[in-house]
Amino acid sequence: MGRKWNNIKEKKASKDANTSRVYAKFGIEIYVAAKKGEPDPESNQALKFVLERAKTYNVPKAIIDRAIEKAKGSSEDNYSELRYEGFGPSGAMIIVDTLTNNVNRTAADVRSAFNKNGGNMGVSGSVSYMFSPTAVIGVEGKTSDEVLELLMDADVDVRDITEEDDSIIIYAEPDQFHAVQTALKQAGITEFTVAELTMLAQNYVNLAPDELAQFEKLIDALEDLEDVQRVYHNVDEK
Length: 238
What we know:
single chain, 4-stranded antiparallel beta sheet, 8 helices, Arc Repressor Mutant, subunit A, Transcrip_reg_TACO1-like, DNA binding, DNA-binding, alpha+beta, 3 domains
């Protein structure tokens, strides 16, 4: 599939190890999901998904509880979900998903990050057509054949199952995310190394070392922005 999900996650975890940035972003995402519906994951699928993701990143329970309690209260914080698209070195494609309570600030910050780091913004649709929305779920302690068999027994369709390092990574349609997790949980698998709804590039590109260094600087600048939740791209970073 072009990407090593555990390696990507380990890189991000290392980068965020000494900061509260990742937790703060999850706090906002949890608040927004809880505010949209009932603040109960059993009746709010969007919230349930965010909490599954948060678990794989070891987000402290106190932060989760605080975000949900805030959603239950009278907070008037309103966030908009916005997507920006652009290009890095050698035309590398980038998608930036944001949650913001200040659209003008976010647009200016994202544009500045592109412009200052060798990239440029594109119009809506200029990049996203080359990506496919995908559910990615990782488990340990099973072989790919065992995972495939239990998913088939549960009548759950997936795109692909691969072995990556010590994990089995399952790729499925987004609307199969909960079906895959339910089947795995019913088989006794309750811990996930990855639990993401992501955008997978249809084709990945390789950059020369100097271009890759510039590209990584651009991605870091985007991910450092307060309002940016996720960044997707089509560069093979192996």
